[in-house]
């Protein structure tokens, strides 16, 4: 096994780990929704979509044999993370300014009209308001944790590509 192949395998392992973490975050959100009764708002659902897209692209990227296809899928992971940053950042702003609305009347039909909302309504259907404050987890709101996760993804994936692809 040559050096480049070893580095690409490291990227693939990172992508698998990233995909598993994203699925675990969705699982944690479902736990909070079903067990703790914390209803998801439109921005929460958009964050779930971003996490799901990151996981799907990460798993597909990890299965790609070539360097170019791996890079394309890592780019899609980063784009999905940027979408998550937009949704989570907006959610953090709304929680900091409760007078601002997330536009549940505008966003709910759009989010509920997405295909997965009818296939998996428990996971992808809007049921709450963005301004509802829930107890923090380790000092941060769920939206802040999601924002942190999306920012880390958007930064660490390109850094990993750079580190693994530069000449030794």
Explain how this protein is built.
It is a single chain. By secondary structure, the protein is mainly α. It has a single domain, classed as Bromodomain-like, CATH 1.20.1550. It is built from seven helices and no strands. Helix 1 runs antiparallel to helix 2, helix 2 packs antiparallel against helix 3 and helix 2 runs parallel beside helix 4. The chain is elongated. The model has no long low-confidence stretch (mean pLDDT 83).
What is the structure about, briefly put?
By secondary structure, this protein is mainly alpha-helical.
End-to-end separation in angstroms reads 15 Å
Number of domains: 1
Helix content, binned percent: over 70%
Q: Under the CATH scheme, which architecture would be assigned?
A: Up-down Bundle
* Overall outline: elongated
The number of helical segments is 7
Order of helices and strands: HHHHHHH
Keyphrases for this structure?
single chain, 168 residues, mainly alpha, Bromodomain-like, 7 helices, 0% strand, elongated
